[in-house]
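Take a careful look at the protein record below. Let me know whether the structure tokens fit the sequence:
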Amino acid sequence: MLKSFVRGCSAASRIRLRHGGHGAMKIVDADTAVSIVQPGHNVYVHGGAATPSYLLGALTNYITALKSDKKVTLHHIHLEGAAPFYAPENEPYFRGNTMFIGSNSRAAVREGRVDFIPVFLSEIPLLYRSRRLPLDVAFIHVSPPDQHGYCSLGVSVCEARAAIEMASVVVAQVNPAMPRTFGDGFLHVSEIDYAVEVNDQPLPGSKPSKPTAAEAQIGRNVAGLIEDGSCLQMGIGNIPNACLEALTHHSRLGIHTEMFSDGILNLIKRDVITGMEKHIHPGKIVSSFAVGSRDLYDFMDNNSAIVMLDVSFVNNPHIISKNPKQVAINSCIEIDLTGQVCADSIGTNMYSGIGGQVDFMRGAALSPGGKPIFAFTSTTTKGVSRIVPTLKDGAGVVTTRAHVHWVVTEYGTVNLFGKNLSERAKALISIAHPDHRESLSKAAAERFRSYHPF
């Protein structure tokens, strides 16, 4: 009765029904839970390491079997794991609307089965709360309820809190493997309409790999810019890990970051990360989502030193700037000689997304003693220079030349803030790969009349 009643209600009344509480969440099997979704519905999907893969598999089977001429639209940031719903044969039944492109959806974006929304990570919750993206159903991934009836969003609070608030129906994959984390991620069972229990299904994740010699040198170069008492934002991958590995002799560091991975664990064990000089949640690691190994997830479980918060707060540049010596470490696909940064596309082909790069680059720039840093290898694995005369045709400018301050490669560090265009070109060429400096210098001389070679 509840399922048919919910389907017949308006969005507003369904929200009142849920938050008015209709008792405990209803535990059902996956096939029953996904049957709440109908062709034409807009469905939010919890992302990152919280991707509810079990539910998505059942949803794919259910919707494709209906063979309706109306598509289900999935709204999400990057998803982990397989994405059968975006397979070419399922194009008649599913449409994607992604705000950050993961590896499992790049082909679908390129081939037109998934659309991309350019948006700052900090503003994704606004898309849901303002109903610019109306949601019929939210698929989420949570821990089992505690003795008070509260589940946790665990490794990914991010934009999920807003989607849960605004969706007409909430369907949860309940998993003992999901760590219980503190902050904005607690969700009472009365806010969940349908729950599907899974038996300790491992969370998707990644294990850090050994940085290359160039990446290790970049890490040392970045570490040389970071003062004791700084507050860090970093992403995932070899370069962020190399930066963290180079910080073992620092002290009193803090963490305020949109996401984190295993790289922080060693610094916490060494008491390098204490957070005591932060102004926002001093002594706490503030983040919005995490992707890493099982060791990381176990460290997060019931750890009151970690606060997982709504991304509209974590990535708010005004909030970020309140932490003194905020350091933002980001990367890019390419940067031109004026400092324009492309981080979301390779030419016209979309690759990732806007994410929180601009949020943190601006927040760090406004922080007292803060440092916004771009760190990347001087060339791609194919030897192509990442420092280029002009961005590729169709490439997107994610971070403007006015936002860019520190730039780091394995060949050194430069600060573009306050430099004119020819000075910027000379600075960037000085940290480019030696094989490309001559051609870059020639391009700079042709473009900037005031440019003089080294």
